[in-house]
C-alpha cells in the first residue's frame, strides 16, 4: 500500500501538511501584492519620483504593515523594473536609461500593433479607447497635462486591450508604468503629449471606420516618432541632472 506522502501521485488522497505550512507566507504574500499595488500607483503618479529613496520605516508605518511585508512588495516592484536595491543604501525608484526607453518602445510596437493586426471583422469594441481619447482632450482643454499623460497611457492600454488577453493587459500595464518613470524626469509634459492628442483621435476614427490595417500603420509611425522624440529629449535631460 502506498504511503500518504506519495498518495497524490498514486491516485490516493495527498498529504497536504506540507502545503499547510506555507499558509502564513501566502497570506503575507497576498498583503505584499496589495502593498505593491499601492506603491505602484504612487510611483506612476509621480508621488515617489525617479531617484527617490523609499524609507522602510516611514512607509511601513504609514501603511501599517510589517517591514517583511514591505520588503516583499519592494521585491515585486523590483521585478517590474520600477525599483532598484542599492547595496548598503536602500531601495530607490529607478531612473531609466535611454536604452531602457528604446527597449520599452520595441515592446510597445510589437504588442500594440499586433493587437490591431489581429482584430477580426468590424465593428470593434472601442468604448475604452474612445473614453481615453476624450479624457485626454478634456484634460488638454483644462491645461491639465499630467491628467493628459494619464489619459494617453490609458489610450495605449486600451489599444492593447483589444486583444482580449489578460496576459497582454498585464504586460502592457508593467511596460507603461515603467515608461512613466521617464515622463516624471521630463520638465514639460505638454511638449510630449499635446502633439499626440490629434493622432490618438485619428487612430480611433480609423478603427471606428473598420480600417484596422490603416490604424496599425498610423500607430507604427506614431510610436516611432514618439520613441525618437522622447529618447532624444530624455538623453538631454539626464545630462542636465
Radius of gyration: 22 Å
**Total DSSP E strands:** 3
**Mean pLDDT over all positions:** 88
Largest sheet: 3 strands, antiparallel
Summed up, the domain count is 2
- List the strand order in the largest sheet: 1-3-2
Low-confidence stretches: 1-10
**CATH superfamily (homologous) name of the largest domain:** GntR ligand-binding domain-like
Overall geometry: globular
CATH class of the largest domain reads: Mainly Alpha
CATH-scheme architecture of the largest domain = Up-down Bundle
Helix content: 55-70%
Q: What fraction strand?
A: under 5%
In short:
The chain has 2 domains: 15-93, Orthogonal Bundle (Arc Repressor Mutant, subunit A); 98-240, GntR ligand-binding domain-like (Four Helix Bundle (Hemerythrin (Met), subunit A)).
